[in-house]
Amino acid sequence: MKVFMQLGWFFKERKKQYIFGILMLIVVAVLQLLPPRIIGFVVDEIRLGELTPGGLGKWLLVLAGAALGMYVLRYYWRIMIFGSSVLLGRQMRERLFRHFTEQSPSFYQQRRVGDLMAHATNDLRAVQMTAGQGVLTLVDSLTTGGAVILAMAFTISWKLTLIALLPMPFMAVLTSWYGRMLHERFRGAQEAFSDLNDKTQESISGIKVIKTFGQEEEDIEDFRRLSADVVDKNVRVAKVDALFDPTISLIVGISFFLSVAFGSRFIVAGEMSVGDLVAFTAYLGLLVWPMLAFGFLFNIVERGRASYGRIMDLLAVEPEVRDVPGAIDRKPGGDLSFDVREFRFPGDGRTALKDVRFELRRGETLGIVGRTGSGKTAILKLLLREFDGYEGLISYGGIPIGDYRKERLREAIGYVPQDHFLFSATIRENIAFTDIDAPIGDVRRAARLAQIDGDILGFADGYETVVGERGVSLSGGQKQRISIARALLMDPELLILDDSLSAVDARTEEAILRSLKAERQGETTIITSHRMSAIQHAHQIIVMDGGTVAEKGTHDELMALRGQYYEMYELQQLEALVEQGGDS
Amino acid sequence: MEKQEKQPVLSNREQWQVLKRLMGYIRPHTKAAVFALVLLGLMVLGNVLGPVLIKIFIDDYLTPGTFPAGPLWSLGAAYLIILVLNTVFGYVQLLKFQEIALKIVRQIRIDAFSKVQRLGMRFFDRTPAGGIVSRVTNDTEAILEMFVDVLVGFLQSGFLIAGVYVAMFILNVRLALITLLLLPFIFLIMAVYRKYSSGFYQDLRERLSQLNGKIAESLNGMGMVQAFRQEKRLRKEFGEINEKHYEAGMRNIRLDGLLLRPAVDLVYALGIILLLSYFGITSFSSPVEVGVIYAFVTYIDRFFEPINQVMQRLSIFQQAIVSAQRVFVLMDDPELEPAQPADGSSEIQEGKIEFRDVSFAYDGKNDVLKHITFTANPGETVALVGHTGSGKSSIINLLMRFYEFGRGDILVDGKPIREYPKGELRQKMGLVLQDPFLFYGDIESNIRLFNESVTPADVRAAAEFVQADPFIRKLPDGYRQKVTERGTTFSGGQRQLIAFARTMAADPKILVLDEATANIDTETEAAIQEGLARMRKGRTTIAIAHRLSTIQDAELILVLHQGEIVERGSHRELLAKKGLYYNMYRLQNGILGDEAG
């Protein structure tokens, strides 16, 4: 029940709804007592011949009134209590989502998306269930159960009530025992299902291997075996699950039997009437649900508590990179100075960068080359302030980048990442990512600069073509160019291309570089690339190797050096030749 | 950004057809189903008889006040016996129905999965794996839910309602007729609920999937979102979807509140009012048996419980039909794998391979292979080299019969490849893929790959043959070492070696190699080279080589460019040509000058 305390803040927030909802539940619990009681009275009056048309009319009116009242109240408590629980789901989801947007990349490196999703779906559902179903079962089993028992004991016979209730604890005990068994078996069934799911996934991913070895029949056989296991495990569940209804009817049946048997004795002894007995058995029927609800309650609450705990743990994680107090609320600009003595990615013992220094004046272009893992991307990640924990100083316009508000810093930077990510949205929305209402003219200008305008117009829906998982599939090169257009749309002072021309052919690359040069006069650009052609015209080139600067200079200087740069350059010239299928 | 997979809206006729096809799956279980139905009937009978016994007791003994021991004992005993039998019947019947449902869904799953196995690679090219998996598992799970909750529930409720009515008619025809008045109300509520709930419920599910889709996409693209500081906009968009979902949730609560339990309880009260009016009015003119009142009150009680349950399940039904429809669409997919004769007796003896003027296009328009002609003599190695997209993999795809080709012909031992039975091709031709796919299990099971005729000794021999044995034996559990999902705990080279061993365990006549491009650690590199050389010995080999150093001894090297063979010959001959191959070779060896040779 601790979870109800933990959710106290929400109950307080929705005080009115919960108080009214619970009051209505209580009124319903009392009104419910009327029909059986009235049946009892009418039966007695009929038997004794005392029923008058007026009396009957009165009873029927009371019945109809109670029924209508209950209908209205039952509707409204659902709106109050279930409605609140849906609202709680919405609020918690909003909070979680906001939290997700505030986390640094290292948060995402340490966690799997599937896990985070589970918090936002399954756990959230369990908490929502606690605030709705949980509150209902708690209140209902207490009020209805209590009211019915009180009515039976005080208006009919407390002795008979005790006797009739004798089997009921068995029901609570048995159903809660079934519940536990069911829980454990259900887990088995879920595991079997998830095995089957994995198996299917694997078979489809490995379909080529299976076809190669002609193992289709054997694979189907394996699938058959796993499906049979799913059936077995589910039958195990069904064996327990099917116990609930019969057990309930058995115990209720015994209760009925006891009530009628002993009730008759009391009638003969003159302690109660036949009508009382009829009413009594009707009350018994009303008791079944609260008894069951009590069993459910523990399940709901237990799951809710665990899930709420998990969500709270996640919400307690502090974002790694935050704005310093009094951070500068101005878009940075000017010259860039990068001086990092040492940097390691969090949770990774290896040195990612060591003694990397460069100065970049506004309007210059810097080219960074090097093999995978040489530290190119690490430099960019620090510039973007995705990580803070480095030794050294990075400043923009003479001010350390850590002093700016993170948001303002990023306003100055147009970043095109290596692994281009497009959202399931239209191409226009993907390009106009930073300014969703940008006029189509601006969007097209950015697309033209990125040499993708023509491709886009070629699609059936043009700029309104939906891409991503559910849209058309684009080639790697097209995705890259859309990513570039996205960064260009914001007209950034600093444009960073992180190996983002790798999937376009040489001619397109050249065209993009040319248009960038023409359009971005006086703006700063940083390009990392495997391909030398992308950076050879840069004002400054650094060659990264093992996290440190191996060579530095202009293209001509580096070529004259006849070192790593020269070698890479020459090899790539040859590669370009081979790619075109040409001979020397 | 909220375009999501819309669910198809099925017409009543389509729904009916899907349901009929689903029902066809019951046939093999007819006996079990009839058995369960009989039990259900008995149970309903018991349920109906119980109140009759109490009625007899009240009217014949309690009201007159006579209590003869004998009849009372037998009455009590009868009640208890019925109660116990009912419990047993109820249990067995519930279990049986669930079992049947589970078995039906198992069959649907196996059918769907078997169908997937028979589909051609084209199908897998155009269908995302996630979608197929969800057809085979999740959608079938929805069908299960329908069988267990909806159909069985309908059946039980229907039986019970029918039984209750029969009993009421036997007890008092006029009153039973009056209670029939309740049915139109119930049908009306059901019809209205069904009309709105299917739309509302589907809307809620779609909103939820939008919501979850948005979360998943945002989590995946968070780096982008933050780099472009669009957190606020994203939160706003999310807030809107969240709100829509909330509204859909509230709509459902309102609908359920208006039409489900509260409404059914209202009709129940109406039923009681009808009963009491009838008895009351009758009592003014003639005596009424109190026991009959009792019995009717009990019947009305029992009558409404199943109705409540059925109503709650109506929305599941629609969902399940849509799921079933999707599964059936998969089962009816016409994109089958290339056909081979089932009973042909052709056998591959020599392993000679000939491509005769083969041209091929995946999409039917753009040829990826143009007039490919070459011959690989038994025991010889033909190497395919060329840039990405030059057509090397397509040659292998055709040779392995992953795709059907239209123009030209491929001959094995002089006979068209189409004439060999599938089993023969699969047994005699071994393919080693670029990215070796390992299955969940252990190393031995991965080498054996379902083939029961391969003994542990064979596995070991195959591993030794390809030089995989040393590294496997160093593992803590040796050949029993667990292989987790995709074998990610092994290095690329180790996976490659295991895949070699797998191919060798099958001992093919023809070897098709797609050499790994991935970085292979120097430790396993030597073992791989040695393993490759041994595998090729005595086998006709078609090899895609990314590293030219590995195929220098090939009898024939084909240099492909844009789907055409642009150069052919031995390593020496090709180098002497100083053409494309020569340049590729220089590139790979980092030779910048013109001094290669």
Structure description:
- The complex is a heterodimer of chains A (584) and B (597).
- By secondary structure, chain A is an alpha/beta fold.
- Among the domains of chain A are: 183 residues, ABC transporter type 1, transmembrane domain (ABC transporter transmembrane region fold), CATH 1.20.1560.10; 114 residues; 74 residues, Rossmann fold (3-Layer(aba) Sandwich).
- Helix content of chain A is 64%, strand content 10%.
- Chain A is built from 22 helices and 10 strands.
- In chain A, the strands form 2 sheets. Chain A has a 6-stranded mixed sheet, with helices on both faces.
- In chain A, helix 3 packs parallel to helix 7, helix 4 packs antiparallel against helix 5 and helix 9 runs antiparallel to helix 11.
- Chain A is elongated and about 120 Å long.
- The termini of chain A are far apart.
- Chain B folds into 2 domains: 315 residues, ABC transporter transmembrane region fold (Up-down Bundle), CATH 1.20.1560; 236 residues, Rossmann fold (3-Layer(aba) Sandwich), CATH 3.40.50.300.
- Chain B is 63% helix and 11% strand.
- Chain B has 20 helices and 12 strands.
- A 6-stranded mixed sheet of chain B has the order 6-9-10-3-11-12, sandwiched between helices. A 4-stranded antiparallel sheet of chain B has the order 2-1-4-5, covered by helices on one side. A two-stranded antiparallel sheet of chain B has the order 7-8.
- In chain B, strand 4 and strand 5 form a beta hairpin.
- Chains A and B meet through helix 4, helix 5, helix 7, helix 9 and helix 10 of A and helix 2, helix 3, helix 5, helix 7 and helix 8 of B.
